[in-house]
Amino acid sequence: MKKILVVDDSGVQRKMIIQIIQKAGFQNPILEAGDGAQAIQTLATNFQDVGIVLCDWNMPNMNGLEFISAIAKVPAVACIPVVMVTTEGTADKIAEAKAANPNLAGYIAKPFTPEVLQSTITPILQSNI
Ligand SMILES: [Mg+2]
User: Is the CA virtual torsion 126, 91, 109, 41 positive or negative?
Assistant: First the structure.
């Protein structure tokens, strides 16, 4: 079963996202990272098992845009579907994220409901088992 990588500098946000995933019935193993740099380290050893990345935008060290831009340039991880989960929900920001990573598979603006998160990630995980 593919792993889900949750990248957010807020531990509370990560916990909330993970709870929604698990309440929705997904039993996929979950990995966590507190910023883009940590997420890259996590992917370095787990990239073959990761089926989706849920990524915050505003984070220290390496932000979400820098992170998705970086992985888009590395063939081994470029194909991993990325869903941004962020307060940066304007059309400009969404376009910027799409330009940074063509595999952007979804965009969830905070605050969001469990239903939105569930309906966004369900088809991605189902097509990527
Ligand atoms: Mg943040």
Answer: positive
Q: How far is the CA of 76 from the centre of ligand 1 (A)?
A: 26
Q: Over the stretch 22-52, which tens digit does the pLDDT of each residue have?
A: 999 999 999 999 999 999 999 999 999 999 9
Spatial neighbors of 87 by CB under 8 A, at least 6 apart, are: 57, 58, 109, 110
Q: One-letter amino acid identity for 35?
A: D
Instruction: Name the pTM for this structure.
Output: 0.96
Q: How far is the CA of 8 from the centre of ligand 1 (A)?
A: 6
Question: What residue numbers bound the domain in which 39 lies?
Answer: 3-126
- Rounded to the nearest angstrom, the distance between the alpha carbon of 110 and the centre of ligand 1 is 10
Domain count, the chain: 1
